[in-house]
Amino acid sequence: MKIAIPVDDSTLNKEVSMSFGRASYFLIYNLETNESEFVLNNAANSQGGAGIKAAQQIVDLGAKVLITPRLGENAAEIILKAGINIKKALASSVENNIRSFANNELNDLIDIHAGFHGHH
Amino acid sequence: MKIAVLSGKGGTGKTFVAVNLAAASFQSTYLDCDVEEPNGHLFFKPSIDNSEEVRVKIPFVIPSLCNGSRKCVEFCRYNALAYVQEKLIVFEDICHSCGGCVLVCPNDAIKEKDKGIGMIQDGKSDDVRVISGFLNPGKASGIPIIKRILQKTKPEDKRVFIDCPPGSSCIVMESIKNADFCLIVAEPTIFGVHNLAMVHELVSVFKKPFAVVLNKCSNEENPAKTYCLEQKIDIIAEIPYNEEIGTVCSNGFILVRKLPKYRSMFENILVTIEKGVGK
Predict the structure, then answer these.
(1) Residue B113 has pLDDT above 50, yes or no
(2) How far does B75 lie from chain A, in Å, by closest CA?
(3) pLDDT tens digit string along B174-188?
(4) Residue A117's pLDDT is what?
(5) What is the ipTM of this complex?
(6) Does A114 map to a domain?
(7) Would you place residue A118 in the very low, low, confident or very high pLDDT band (cuts 50, 70, 90)?
């Protein structure tokens, strides 16, 4: 199973990115093989609709779980339609978040925000 | 003659200047193109002759024709389209109605429908024709409303005053595009000067004749005036910062109608513009 996490640096030691749509990379972590891959976020420099484009990318990468501190409503619509689970990231390293998820300790993200729409 | 009144920063006094110029002029037309926050009508309190809804084209998909090529998703620079679980999703509030998705679809699976984004009110306040645009909250762009407002003027209209949105983005460009003259309103703050420089660049790119009205002038230093002198920009008027003017405006009145002694200040601005300042 693949997990997607927005990150600003391509390392497991740093914290999860505070932004979903404008994160620099997405970590795609395979829980079975423990392989990690950092994929450039194609939406990071979008003029608008970054959340939508980023969500499309997550869907296309085949992730089944998204771990993020927050998510806008348009991105959430896509992620949920694709049947991807959304977990709320801890204010901690990417590594800790993966471990917490594997131990079933992360909560579902329920506070979907209305989007920043250019004000990020 | 079409005079666009603009400023980089909001709150410098665009509406104050535009409304008073229109009221000081004989049989003029006032266009409120600041469609996100139109407030000229609060001063003019016009009697409304007619209102019309402004609509744009929004795409929708015919699922049986869509083969999932994603050409539209890749094309849309506003990311208003997504393709998930073999279904196309349209985010209507993000769409800028360019129609590109319809053109690039290889299967003609995308059609367009009308969607209301706001309205225009056309009315009268004494001898001033007042046309105001109102963009509904949450909509992507007010440009279609501005285009429609500008179409409502006729070549024989003697003096048209265009109250522009703040800033220097595409909605401002749309508002000044067909103007004969750009009147920039500036306030004596550092922030104001920064944005004054941005609109200065904008009107220069558009090769428009322009001049500056310095608003809220006191005995304190005026960075906007310094900028104009350095850049050799014509200063057409200096409006004082005083309680009398502030009180009239705060109560929603038009200065030249309430206190006729200020009328000559605005008439002089018009005379100076028509003499060909800033060319």
Answers:
(1) yes
(2) 12
(3) 999 999 999 999 999
(4) 64
(5) 0.88
(6) no
(7) low
Task: Using CB atoms within 10 Å of the CB of residue B112, give its burial: 0 to 12 exposed, 13 to 18 middle, 19+ buried.
Answer: middle
For chain A, what percent of residues have pLDDT higher than 70? 95
Give the tens place of pLDDT for each residue, B34-66.
Answer: 999 999 999 999 999 999 999 999 999 999 999
CATH classification (class only), B2-28+158-274: alpha beta
Show residues of chain B in contact with A59, CB under 8 Å.
82, 84
- B74 interfacial to chain A (CB closer than 8 Å): no
Does B87 contact A81 at a Cβ distance shorter than 8 Å? yes
Sheet (strand A25-30) strand order: A35-40, A25-30, A2-7, A65-68, A85-88
CATH 3.30.70.20 corresponds to the domain B56-116: yes
Q: Does A63 touch chain B (CB under 8 A)?
A: no
Pairing status of strand A65-68 against strand A2-7: parallel
Residues of B with Cβ-Cβ distance to A46 under 8 angstroms: 77, 79
Q: Round the average pLDDT of chain A to a whole number and report it.
A: 92
Cβ contacts from A onto B, under 8 A: 44
Residue A46 distance to chain B (closest CA, Å): 8
Q: Is B75 on the interface with A (CB under 8 A)?
A: no
pLDDT category at A120 given cuts 50, 70, 90 is: very low
B84 touches chain A (CB under 8 A): yes
Query: Helix (H, G, I), strand (E, B), or coil: what is residue A49?
Result: coil
Q: Which domain holds residue A98?
A: 2-102
Residue found by looking up tokens 């694709």 in the block: A82
B16: left (phi over 0), alpha (psi -120 to 50) or beta: alpha
Per-residue confidence band for B73, with pLDDT thresholds at 50, 70 and 90: very high
Sheet of B29-32, strands arranged across: B47-61, B110-125, B128-135, B29-32, B160-163, B2-6, B181-186, B210-217, B235-240
Domain count, chain A: 1
CB-based contact, B68 to chain A, within 8 Å: no
CB contact under 8 A, A50 and B79: yes
CATH of the domain at A30: 3.30.420.130
Domains of chain B, by residue range, sit at 2-28+158-274, 56-116
Nearest CA in chain B to A51: B79
